[in-house]
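Input chain follows. Return structure tokens only.
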Amino acid sequence: MKTEMLQKPDFGILKVVFEAAGESIVCESGAMVSRSTGIHMKTSMRGGLLAAAKRKLLGGESLFQNVFTATDAGQEIYLAAAPEGDLERMELQAGDEFYLQSGAYLASDANLILDTKWGGVKGLFGPGMFLIKVVGPGTVWFNSYGALHAIDVNGQFTCDNDHVVGFGPGLDYKMRAFGGMKGFFFSGEAFVCEFNGQGRLYAQTRRGPNLASFLHPYRPVQKSSD
């Protein structure tokens, strides 16, 4: 199949053109934008109930995933993530591992394995305590909130935990409070992730909590009647 990432970096959408009948792509529930009518869709808990429940409860992903399979060459499908942001792809060889924050997974080849990995204390990577572990061979497409910024780390590097999207196995990490107790409570940073090693880190240019804080004063408030 041929793939193309369009409308980058603000409103990324993945275009997939199948080159032969029987080709498939797996995607997160609700990711489909449009498709050729003849494409077959199957919704299932990939890996079985226990594996799907683990991804849902620990990794923050959907319990169900959709598998779209071509019935003829030339059929196409468009996929997009929920947040307004960028898309990127990662090619994995057999046994390669790639880690994504909760909610960053969009789609993958049918033979890729999705699992979960302990990510530290709650709040380190997104809303959950676990990372999505992607094991090759194959291609995975992932998304961000805002633009994606790729950083080639060689040694030590610090990134705000809410800006981390994904990274490879060559990087170790640990969480720490930013700037001690004073920085933790008053800097607006709270926790940061300290990476060590050699590999590529993907960071997003926007944070969900910042948007929530910006919108909070404008939310409607229901006044109680006396």
